[in-house]
Design brief:
The complex is a heterodimer of chains A (114) and B (114). With 114 residues, chain A is an all-beta fold. Chain A contains no helices and eleven strands. Chain B starts with a strand and ends with a strand.
């Protein structure tokens, strides 16, 4: 089954404790992206990757890191989480983004930073 | 960068009525405009999209119109049903080349009353 998976689905952590949210897709998609969703603010892009070893900032990259060492994986790293990073996070992937194909979203990761 | 404004933020209609959601964008170079539907607790999913070389696109009960001159696009849902109740997001992108950023509106909560 073609899908985008994220782990963990739920995470409660404390300020300053480094964490990684994993994202994996099995559709051989070149493009992957991370979004955060907050009430009243919609979906905001954090980082995206056009292909392996190619990443770029989205609209809200501060406090986040990403890496794209393999085509299928695109982990989101919070080196020192803060309460304002409490949010619902979505990973998405797409083939040939330059040609405007659908983005497939993962199930989401609900992160709470206390 | 691109800015997408979406209105209204909430919309309540009676079953069988039509619903219209409007979005404006700021970047005249944007050329791809998808609409995503997010049911409660679920991931966003593409329902329809339109490219800048087309003025209107229909898919059964949903349609999207695009006015490039005015830089706005709209989602039209006819004969609404309770299962249409969800949050709808518009988005805009210029795509192509080495840059691909998808900017979302803040969303519209559509409630279809039986």
């Amino acid at each position: 089954e073609a899908q985008v998976t994220q782990n963990p689905r739920y995470l409660i952590t404390v300020t300053g404790k480094k964490l990684t949210v994993t994202c994996s897709q099995n559709m051989n998609h070149e493009y992957m992206s991370w979004y955060r969703q907050d009430p009243g603010l919609g979906l905001r892009q954090i980082y995206y990757s056009m292909n392996v070893e190619v990443t770029d900032k989205g609209d809200v990259p501060e406090g986040y890191k990403v890496s794209r060492k393999e085509k299928r994986n695109f982990p989101l790293i919070l080196e020192s989480p803060s309460p304002n990073q409490t949010s619902l996070y979505f990973c998405a992937s797409s083939s040939s983004p330059g040609l405007h194909y659908e983005q497939y979203f993962g199930p989401g990761t609900r992160l709470t930073v206390t | 960068g691109e800015n997408v404004e979406q209105h209204p933020s909430t919309l309540s209609v009676q079953e069988g009525d039509s619903a219209v959601i409007k979005c404006t964008y700021s970047d005249s170079a944007s050329n791809y405009f998808p609409w995503y539907k997010q049911e409660l607790g679920k991931r966003p999913q593409l329902i329809i999209d339109i490219r800048s070389n087309v003025g209107e696109k229909k898919d059964q009960r949903i349609a999207v119109t695009l006015n490039k001159t005015a830089k706005h696009f709209s989602l039209h849902i006819t004969e609404t049903q309770p299962e249409d109740s969800a949050v709808y997001f518009c988005a805009a992108s210029r795509g192509g080349g080495s840059n691909y950023k998808l900017t979302f509106g803040k969303g519209t909560l559509l409630t279809v009353n039986p």
